[in-house]
Amino acid sequence: MRAVLRTVNRVLLGLLGLVLLAVGGSVLAIGLGAPAPSWWIHHGRHDVLLNAAERTRWRDAGWWWPAVLAALAVLVLLALWWLLAVLRRRRLAEVLVDTGDGEGALLRGRALEGVVAQDAGAMDGVERADVALTGRRSAPSARVRLLLAPHVAPGTALHRLTTGALAHARDSAGLASLPAEVRLKGARHRAERVG
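Now predict its structure.
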């Protein structure tokens, strides 16, 4: 799902950038003396964005300026929401560990990621393991990527991961569950010569 959102985000940003580039470039070209096309809203380099007639046309309508200001406010709020969504941290900074006394302790997310990655990387046939924690600090989830050697069966590696590294992390942090999204990829190897 994140890949779809990332793709939609990039496509929308690209389209918005192209539209702004086309409009800005055409305004600059007309301002430098290029002839304006017939469909363009202004007709020459000395034409203003809003002339006096356009600015005062809706002055008597009491709904016009509040509607314009409300639409601009909604656009600003949507742009701020989008900016915060893009800049939001994806990784979990800390995990709340249940200590049994009702207080709890905080464990650095990077530390738990490192331990799970080290345990997963030590499994037979795993060449590289990457782990990222997401979610809330009281209910984390893991994203695990494993690079498997050619001789390892994916089902076996997944079983070892869930009963080994992920189970150890769940138990040591005192979590009720640790859901995980696991991506397995086979390492490339050269073709063997048959004699």
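Residues 68 and 123 are 62 Å apart (CA to CA).
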